[in-house]
Amino acid sequence: MSYEAFRQFADSWGLVLMGVAWASFVGWAFLPRNRDRNRASAELIFKDSDHG
User: Fold this and answer.
1) CA-wise closest residue to 6 among 26, 14, 18
2) What is the enclosing helix (H) or strand (E) of 34?
3) pLDDT tens digit string along 4-46?
4) 46 near 52, Cβ under 8 Å?
5) What does the alpha-carbon distance between residue 9 and residue 2 come to, in Å, rounded to a whole number?
6) How far apart are CA 8 and CA 15, in angstroms?
7) I need a labelling partner for 31 at 20 to 30 A (CA). Which of 17, 20, 22, 41 fits?
8) Residue 17 Cα distances to 20, 22, 39, angstroms
9) What pLDDT, on a 0 to 100 scale, did the predictor assign at position 48?
10) Buried-state track 3-20, b at ≥16 Cβ within 10 A, e below 16
11) What are the start-end ranges of the E strands in the chain?
């Protein structure tokens, strides 16, 4: 595979693949079964706080 062919493939299907991967990761984060884990992760920075 030449550089030009690889570059054309990456410019077309590579972008599609990255878009599908991004949508999958975002969708995975918003699944209902991940709600408790996401909430715990969001509140982790306040664990050792003296203000609350």
Assistant:
1) 14
2) none
3) 998 998 888 998 999 999 999 999 999 999 999 999 999 998 8
4) yes
5) 11
6) 11
7) 17
8) 5, 9, 29
9) 82
10) eeeeeeeeeeeeeeeeee
11) none
pLDDT in the model for residue 1: 81
Cα 13 from Cα 15, distance rounded (Å): 5
CA 49/CA 52 separation, integer angstroms: 7
Instruction: Output the pLDDT for position 18.
Output: 93
Q: Does residue 52 register a pLDDT over 90? A: no
Is the predicted pLDDT of residue 51 greater than 70, yes or no? Answer: no
What's the half-sphere exposure (Cβ side, CA atoms, 13 Å) at 3? 0
Residues 6+ apart with CB under 8 A from 1: 9
